[in-house]
Amino acid sequence: MLSTTFLVVAFSLASFSHASVLTVTPSGRYQSTCRSIANAISNSSQLFYPNSTQYTADIDHSLVTSTQVSACSVEPGSAADVGVILRILGSTRTPFAVKGGGHAVNPGFSSTTGVQISMTRFSNIELNNATGTVDAGPGVTWDQVYTALDSTGVNVVGGRVPTVGISGLTLGGGYAFTSNQYGLTIDNMAGYELVLPNGTITNVTESNKDLWFALRGGGNNFGIVTKFTYKTVPQGQVWGGTISYNADQLDLVKEALLKFQQKNDTKAALTVPVTYTPAGAIPAALVFYNAPTPAPGIFDDFLAIPTNQSDVKTRSFVDIFNTLSFINFPKNIRYRGRTNGISVTQYSPSVFDAIVNQTLFWGGKIGALNPNVTVSLACEAFLKDLFSHGSDSAYPPDRSRALFPTAVTITYNNASLDDTVSKAVRSLSDTVAAAAVADGQNVSHAAVYPNYALFDTPLEEIYGANLLRLHGIKKAVDPTNVMGLAGGFKI
Ligand SMILES: *[C@@H]1O[C@H](CO)[C@@H](O)[C@H](O)[C@H]1NC(C)=O
Ligand SMILES: *[C@@H]1O[C@H](CO)[C@@H](O)[C@H](O)[C@H]1NC(C)=O
Ligand SMILES: *[C@@H]1O[C@H](CO)[C@@H](O)[C@H](O)[C@H]1NC(C)=O
Ligand SMILES: *[C@@H]1O[C@H](CO)[C@@H](O)[C@H](O)[C@H]1NC(C)=O
Ligand SMILES: *[C@@H]1O[C@H](CO)[C@@H](O)[C@H](O)[C@H]1NC(C)=O
Ligand SMILES: *[C@@H]1O[C@H](CO)[C@@H](O)[C@H](O)[C@H]1NC(C)=O
Ligand SMILES: *[C@@H]1O[C@H](CO)[C@@H](O)[C@H](O)[C@H]1NC(C)=O
Ligand SMILES: *[C@@H]1O[C@H](CO)[C@@H](O)[C@H](O)[C@H]1NC(C)=O
Ligand SMILES: *[C@@H]1O[C@H](CO)[C@@H](O)[C@H](O)[C@H]1NC(C)=O
Ligand SMILES: *[C@@H]1O[C@H](CO)[C@@H](O)[C@H](O)[C@H]1NC(C)=O
Ligand SMILES: *[C@@H]1O[C@H](CO)[C@@H](O)[C@H](O)[C@H]1NC(C)=O
Question: What's the CA-to-centroid distance between 346 and ligand 8, angstroms?
Fold first, then answer.
């Protein structure tokens, strides 16, 4: 099995650089805001203090570094109460955070020392076969959505990693197994129910030009989404699985990846993670085909390489989703983590070699300081016309060419290494990007996928020329910058 990981990050704030964060007493500063919220919300919602199990669940994240001790948590049960809460937070200027699935990979992006909003009560998943849409609440995760749609004959274009929530992925863009066929998650939206920063509830559809543009990739800058409506696509049995190789097969896997990129089959999806072990860099191939049998030849190069282990077969979508993960959070150990995305336009031999080199180099270096380290770089090979399926959106700023996001993940469990690992992620990303540039790829300022981007990534590197328009929309929708009280990439 792969032991790749995806993690979260923490700014090196003293308050949460301890593994034992939960024993820290929250600051008394925001208690009056907590009381105001408790008094104002309806009985569909509830506010919790650190003496409750609900609070502990509300502030919890997949990565230790994405968790902070908040003054209180609140679980809104209606869009109206989300509005009530936002108005109180805005008028008291109280820092807050909004948590969907809790898979945020950057510190402070969905955690806070102020008021933690947990969207867990928005857990509805409803297929409307007549309109060809699925309504889903921001508290659910992709495994719940796919499980609910199993055997309905339809599916949505969503996340590739179990435990990832729908809200962060959908607000940031969304690369899917079926993106070569249908585009990103944001290219398959029918609408949103959005609570604006001033507390007003609104429906956003394609006719609302500015918010439609901004919500598709613009993150949590424009309010709080209380319902996502996805367009459905047909879904039958699929074929694929995880093929693990040994370190001595790296060259053959590289050749197979190069050849795969010459092919042009919209039903095929491929991720090739390279993972550090003290014995070498271990490659794998996560293969997916959106039909019960793959087209002849499409994955033959990968199937011909001697494997360590393989579970490739015909199966349901939810079954492959549950096992086909390039981002595996270690179970039972609470990990810290840092991630980034490296945008390339193809995996050339020298880009692949740089990926292997950097995996080994930083795995060895950080492994010497923390034997529990995982370093993984995942090649995500899509088709060249990946971004041709949708209209203008906050991300990606340029739809004329595809960018492959290359997930960089380092997990570890020694808080004193937070800064070291951040620097390692930045350094290895720069090195791999430089290899792509040296190859003639025009990627020195290529947009970085916001859901992978390391916390210090400048906004220009994510939104490019869209930033000006996004600033204008933000100013109009949130003139007092309420959403600036929450973390994240702040437009
Ligand atoms: C919640 O309040 C409404 C009235 O606002 C009331 O009808 C309902 O019974 C209450 N529900 C509970 C569980 O207290
Ligand atoms: C938890 O703490 C809050 C605020 O301090 C207090 O009002 C409440 O009674 C406590 N609940 C329990 C079960 O101790
Ligand atoms: C929904 O529609 C799809 C495609 O039109 C069909 O295959 C499926 O049986 C329908 N599912 C339900 C639950 O009605
Ligand atoms: C949003 O759309 C839904 C479904 O059409 C409707 O029930 C609701 O009233 C709308 N909300 C607003 C604020 O317009
Ligand atoms: C698979 O990989 C593991 C871990 O590297 C190794 O111990 C084992 O011998 C490998 N098995 C095969 C069949 O190559
Ligand atoms: C990676 O490349 C650097 C040169 O850029 C070299 O010094 C280093 O030895 C290489 N590391 C590995 C593990 O191959
Ligand atoms: C990894 O971390 C766990 C939990 O802290 C610890 O029990 C284990 O010994 C560590 N393993 C190594 C190889 O350091
Ligand atoms: C892939 O094939 C389709 C037609 O099947 C064609 O329209 C498209 O341009 C091709 N894309 C590439 C990158 O070759
Ligand atoms: C954590 O890392 C620091 C700095 O490398 C080191 O001094 C310390 O011993 C490590 N702690 C553990 C428990 O390994
Ligand atoms: C290179 O990419 C940038 C976006 O990062 C784009 O603005 C520019 O036009 C591209 N240059 C060429 C020669 O394609
Ligand atoms: C809230 O903001 C929206 C969007 O800017 C605006 O249309 C609406 O009038 C505002 N509502 C209130 C009550 O100020």
Answer: 16
